[in-house]
Design goal:
Blueprint (H helix, E strand, L loop, with lengths): L7 H13 L3 H5 L2 E9 L7 E4 L1 H15 E14 L2 E12 L5 E13 L2 E9 L1 H8 L2
Length: 134
């Protein structure tokens, strides 16, 4: 299990690494017990999820069901105190349509006490939907 704590950007980076490795236990270790995780309206998993188990079961476990090789590639971090904004790219292949997803995304994290307490996703949901339609 990954230890909690660290600078905000380090905590967020551990979350991306855990997600990429499919290590949900390590991912949950980066999340506060009262985390609020918001997937953007129009995204297939739109909504706000709470608790580390709630986030991983409603988001991470679901992404892999319909999409092969779902990955969030984090590339640019902008840090202001407890706020971490990450510019990234989602890539995957929709299992039903065999269409690729390759879309830019921005994530806003708030990290307090070495854990992610808030997350909000910004993504071009039309591109994601296009990859889901036959």
């Amino acid at each position: 299990m990954v230890a909690a704590g660290g600078a905000p950007a380090d905590v967020v980076r551990r979350q991306y690494l855990a997600s990429a490795n499919g290590d949900l236990e390590a991912l949950r270790a980066t999340l506060a017990d009262d985390v609020e995780w918001t997937e953007m309206a129009g995204f297939p998993l739109a909504g706000t999820y709470r608790t580390p188990n709630g986030v991983t079961s409603a988001v991470m476990e679901q992404l892999g069901k319909d999409r092969a090789d779902w990955t969030a590639h984090d590339d640019t971090y902008v840090v202001d105190g407890e706020n971490v904004v990450v510019l990234a790219r989602y890539t995957a292949t929709n299992k039903a349509t065999d269409k690729d997803i390759d879309v830019r995304v921005a994530h806003h994290f708030i990290v307090r006490g070495g854990r992610i307490v808030r997350f909000e996703q910004f993504v071009d949901t039309a591109k994601v939907r296009d990859a889901m339609n036959a």
